[in-house]
């Protein structure tokens, strides 16, 4: 039982730390974002870290559920590899968007992220349906983020 708790804690810590590191590397992203013109339906700035924290926790739990099905199984290894790849793409989106202001490039990067999340959901679903369902809010939020990303690019003369 203690081992499972430790594995769960590590599984949740990985995406949470990814988010924290991304925020640090992005350097004051939300402050800069607050000064941009934003499209209709843009949520208040305080909501972003709350939503992302919840999503990272859900991602961690989902990856834990998949890992528990046998990390040496080829399907589990493939699913967790794609999960790790989408997490890396997620990390870099914030850097591209907030640090460099590459709004159009960031949107294309977000499309790649969306696709990788979908592939992760499909692969997780073959191993653990609850794990796949835990990632659906993440896919929906990234879809909404795509709308916000394009809106910011249009309204602020996005570079790249």
Blueprint (SSEs and pairs):
Layout: H1 2-26, H2 29-34, H3 47-67, H4 74-99, H5 103-127, H6 129-155
Tell me what you see in this structure.
The model has no long low-confidence stretch (mean pLDDT 94). The chain is built from 6 helices and no strands. It has one domain: Ferritin, CATH 1.20.1260. The protein has helices at residues 2-26, 29-34, 47-67, 74-99, 103-127, 129-155. With 160 residues, the chain is mainly α. The longest helix is centred in the last third of the chain and has 27 residues, at 129-155. Helices cover 81% and strands 0% of the residues. It is elongated, with a radius of gyration of 16 Å. α1 runs parallel beside α4.
Report the strand count: 0
Q: What is the 3D form?
A: elongated
Number of helices: 6
The CATH architecture name reads Up-down Bundle
Helix content: over 70%
Structural class: mainly alpha
Stretches where pLDDT falls below 50 for ≥5 residues? none
- The proportion of residues in beta strands is under 5%
What keyword list fits this structure?
single chain, 160 residues, mainly alpha, Ferritin, 6 helices, 0% strand, elongated
């Amino acid at each position: 039982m203690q081992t499972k708790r430790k594995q769960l804690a590590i599984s949740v810590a990985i995406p949470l730390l990814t988010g924290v590191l991304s925020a640090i590397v992005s350097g004051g992203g939300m402050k800069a974002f607050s000064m941009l013109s934003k499209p209709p339906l843009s949520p208040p700035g305080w909501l972003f870290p709350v939503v992302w924290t919840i999503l990272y926790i859900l991602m961690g739990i989902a990856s834990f559920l998949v890992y528990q099905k046998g990390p040496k199984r080829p399907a589990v290894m493939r699913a967790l590899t794609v999960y790790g790849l989408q997490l890396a793409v997620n990390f870099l989106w914030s850097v591209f968007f907030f640090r460099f202001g590459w709004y159009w490039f960031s949107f294309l990067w977000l499309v790649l992220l969306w696709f990788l999340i979908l592939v992760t959901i499909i692969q997780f679903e073959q191993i653990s349906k609850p794990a796949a369902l835990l990632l659906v809010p993440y896919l929906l939020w990234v879809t909404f983020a795509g709308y916000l990303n394009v809106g910011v690019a249009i309204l602020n003369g996005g570079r790249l």
